[in-house]
Design a protein that fits this description.
By secondary structure, the chain is α+β, with helices and mostly antiparallel strands. It contains 5 helices and 16 strands.
Amino acid sequence: MTLCVSWLRKVSSQVEELVIATDSRLRSVGAWDANPKIFPLPREDSFITFAGDTHYAYPMITQLINAINNHPRSQKRFQDLAFFKGFVLRCFNDLLEFRSELMEDYKIPDAQFILGGYSWKYSRYFIWTIHFVNSQNAFTYRPASFWRGIEGERKVMFIGNYVDEAKEKLINILRLRDKLTSGGLDYEPFEVLCEMLKGDNTGRDIGGSPQMVKVYRHINVVPFAVKWNINGQQRITLFGRPLQASEKINHPLIDPTTMKITNYGQIGTNS
């Protein structure tokens, strides 16, 4: 019930930034299109997002945030990101021990996560998927790998629904722009997500507005507001929620039609 994509965006030959973007739809008895799926972590150098069953994902992420706040070495980043992933796995796997009276369909956690951020120890970005392995009866991790067969470094990771469709669309965009076999990524993965969210998504497992967060090398996690057409009106959304006219935001704003970013400041969100 989600499509998540995380990638390294090449700003210049020497500068990269880590980006994560998802849709905003949850499904149960129907479709609900205003839900947060990206969670900046209290360490302020990383994020976590999810795809799959919210019965697992939401409690696990909430308890992870609680655990970080109760663990000064992690909260203050004395524990580097490269080792923090072990903290995440221990937290998730420990939570599984407290399940009981499970229906058969819920014995195997149908949830996966992307954990990403910047490591001060290794001076680089990391992206991992965290997923459940039946044979181990535990969550484990897998690092994102570089795109093979190209000149230069390119790293992108998808999880959730319609992943094959998203990958095909990304390849088509890169081919049209003569970037398939060389160079880094700009906002092409975000363009793919936005294209898949436009139009009628009735019956689809993804929907709502896109949401986006960036991690910078100066160890700063920045949510982005997104301008999105909702029922024929241009609205400003943040973490999937259309903001009310009285709200003010202090986040950058991205317009998916142009990929232009502006600092929205203290201007009314829908004025």
